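Exercise 7b. Backbone tokens:
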């Protein structure tokens, strides 16, 4: 079916939730059974049960019964969830570096191949050159538009959940990914749309919605306002690896028959930009299986 939600909207509809990314992260770290998740996360039984069902439906986890009396199941990861590691690694690095509100600081990441604590460096897969948002040109692809990139719904936050539950670990990331307008607004900022009226026109969101998201991003230091324009701060620009890794995952797993939603081109080599993460200590391209917490 053409004309419906594109890969970006489907990705946000799946991952735009306080708990989903954390459950997947724990699964990638080895959690498979219900008790593993409750031991690792401050999640209620009802929320965990609901998220596990949705993750199985979305092919991010597999349900495998290992005991029949009583019935007990484990939830191993799938290729779809394993390939989320670049996005999760980029989120961890951004929150660890830029978000000061964590009650307990997030630990560093260690690269098993070289044994060093590291920070991931974004590069162009085609030419292996370190890349920032200034090095990449974005344009809509055949299935791309603001309207088609916004999911109709995301999981509804309950009062206090963002700060007391999963959001306590990824608080500011979830103000972007966990909000159907927040992600679109930040992408718009990256492509240079910086005035309130232009954001409202391009995104098609109500004025109050745009005003609230701009106020949130300004308060969190992701955007700053000057002369009626909302520009990315250094902290906001540092979110770029999360965006491109999320986009790469979305377009791999939710291909549209019309073609990609977004086309990225690397200025340096002129080829399509596909992100790759390398260790800043040994300069070797990272693999998810070789990353651990320090």
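Sequence design result:
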């Amino acid at each position: 079916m053409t004309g419906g939600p594109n890969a970006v909207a489907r990705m946000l509809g799946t991952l735009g939730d306080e708990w989903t990314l954390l459950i997947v992260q724990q699964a990638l770290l080895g959690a498979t059974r219900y008790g593993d998740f409750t031991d690792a996360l401050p999640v209620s039984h009802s929320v965990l049960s609901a998220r596990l069902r949705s993750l199985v439906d979305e092919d991010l986890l597999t349900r495998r019964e290992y005991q029949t009396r009583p019935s007990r199941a484990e939830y191993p990861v799938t290729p779809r969830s394993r390939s989320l590691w670049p996005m999760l690694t980029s989120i961890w690095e951004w929150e660890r570096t830029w978000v000061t509100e964590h009650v307990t600081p997030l630990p560093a990441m260690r690269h098993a191949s070289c044994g060093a604590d590291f920070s991931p460096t974004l590069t162009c897969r085609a030419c292996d050159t370190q890349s920032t948002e200034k090095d990449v040109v974005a344009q809509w692809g055949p299935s791309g538009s603001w309207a088609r990139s916004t999911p109709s719904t995301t999981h509804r936050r309950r009062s206090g959940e963002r700060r007391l539950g999963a959001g306590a670990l990824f608080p500011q990331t979830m103000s972007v990914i966990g909000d159907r307008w927040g992600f679109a607004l930040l992408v718009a900022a990256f492509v240079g749309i910086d005035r309130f009226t232009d954001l409202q026109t391009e995104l098609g969101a109500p004025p109050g919605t745009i005003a609230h998201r701009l106020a949130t991003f300004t308060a969190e230091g992701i955007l700053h306002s000057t002369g009626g324009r909302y520009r990315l701060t250094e902290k906001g620009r540092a979110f770029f690896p999360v965006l491109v890794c999320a986009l790469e995952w979305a377009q791999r797993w939710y291909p549209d028959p019309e073609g990609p939603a977004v086309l990225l081109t690397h200025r340096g080599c002129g080829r399509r930009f596909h992100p790759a993460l390398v260790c800043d200590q040994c300069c070797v391209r990272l693999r998810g299986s070789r990353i651990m917490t320090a």
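Instructor comment: Residues 84-237 form a domain with the Arc Repressor Mutant, subunit A fold (CATH 1.10.10.10). The chain has a mean pLDDT of 91.
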